[in-house]
DNA sequence: CGCCATACCTAGATAATCTAGGTATGGCGC
DNA sequence: GCGCCATACCTAGATTATCTAGGTATGGCG
């Protein structure tokens, strides 16, 4: 469903909303995209873990509303990666549009 | 490299250029996209075969410039599929852009 | 006549994403 | 106070898409 642009979307939604937990990432993506991206947990959680392994996000367990949640936040590296991926996306997008024009 | 939109690109390039053979599809995609999509043969040929199995393109062997080439052309079904995939692309595109906005 | 670009192809590897499970807990209705 | 549902997290394995790395054949050029 995210067709190879999942990392971009995850980094993007984290940049908008500040620290978010997994479920909120899914909900944020669904809302921000107008329902276009309603990703399964089994897609999002492993992807967040990979982003953390790569140093693009950092996570902390905290208790919000009396519930344990793992909050994900962008790192500096992640912000830079987001900027790079946004450029790639812009090129990809105009490449596709050019072929379809 | 085509991140899940390969079929769209192949159908799109065939719509622009009329019947094309495999190599010309690759070159057409490279040129039309301004170099963004320079796909390996091992990606394009199997994808064209799959499009043909699905009835989206039709192929005929012919001799062009004294060389055997398999020319691919859009079918009616393929044209409809292209229209549908263009709509999907537009939604995908605005979904991503909305998340990044 | 040998080589290179063109032209076609497939098998197997790799990578991304999804399916289908599993666990735990807070709050709500009864 | 108990059962259930939504929230919240997770992983293993399957699936799918795409790429890598090969292979073959031929026309034209030096």
- What general outline of chain A do the C-alpha atoms trace? globular
CATH class of chain A: Mainly Alpha
What is the terminal-to-terminal distance of chain A? Answer: 24 Å
CATH superfamily of chain A: Winged helix-like DNA-binding domain superfamily/Winged helix DNA-binding domain
Report the count of strand segments of chain A.
Answer: 3
Query: What is the string of helix and strand elements of chain A?
Result: HEHHEEH
Report low-confidence residues of chain A grouped into runs of 5 or more. Answer: none
Largest sheet of chain A: 3 strands, antiparallel
Find the CATH topology of chain A: Arc Repressor Mutant, subunit A
Helical percentage of chain A: 55-70%
Q: Which band does the percent of strand residues of chain A land in? A: 15-25%
Total number of distinct structural domains of chain A: 1
Largest interface: A-B, 25 and 25 residues
Q: Count up the helices of chain A.
A: 4
Integer average pLDDT of chain A: 94
- The secondary-structure class of chain A comes to alpha+beta
Question: What keywords describe this structure?
Answer:
homodimer; 101 residues; alpha+beta; Arc Repressor Mutant, subunit A; 3-stranded antiparallel sheet; 3 strands; 18% strand; globular; DNA-binding
Description of the structure:
With 101 residues, chain A is α+β, with helices and mostly antiparallel strands. Chain A has one domain: Winged helix-like DNA-binding domain superfamily/Winged helix DNA-binding domain (Arc Repressor Mutant, subunit A), CATH 1.10.10. Helices cover 60% and strands 18% of the residues of chain A. Chain A contains four helices and three strands; from the N terminus they run H-E-H-H-E-E-H. In chain A, strands 1-3-2 form a three-stranded antiparallel sheet. In chain A, helix 1 (6-17) crosses helix 2. Chain A starts with 5 loop residues before the first helix and ends with a helix. Chains A and B meet through helix 1 and helix 4 of A and helix 1 and helix 4 of B. The first copy, chain A, binds a DNA duplex (30 and 30 nucleotides) through residues 1-4, 6, 21-23, 39-43, 45-47, 49, 65-70.
């Amino acid at each position: 469903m995210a067709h190879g642009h999942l990392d971009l979307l995850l980094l993007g939604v984290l940049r908008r909303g500040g620290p978010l937990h997994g479920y909120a990432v899914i909900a944020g993506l669904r809302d921000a995209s107008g329902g276009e991206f309603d990703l399964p947990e089994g897609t999002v959680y492993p992807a967040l873990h990979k982003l953390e392994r790569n140093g693009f996000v950092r996570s902390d367990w905290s208790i919000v509303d009396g519930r344990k949640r793992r909050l994900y936040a962008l790192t500096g590296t992640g912000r830079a990666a987001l900027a790079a991926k946004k450029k790639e996306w812009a090129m990809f997008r105009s490449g596709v549009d050019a072929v379809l024009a």
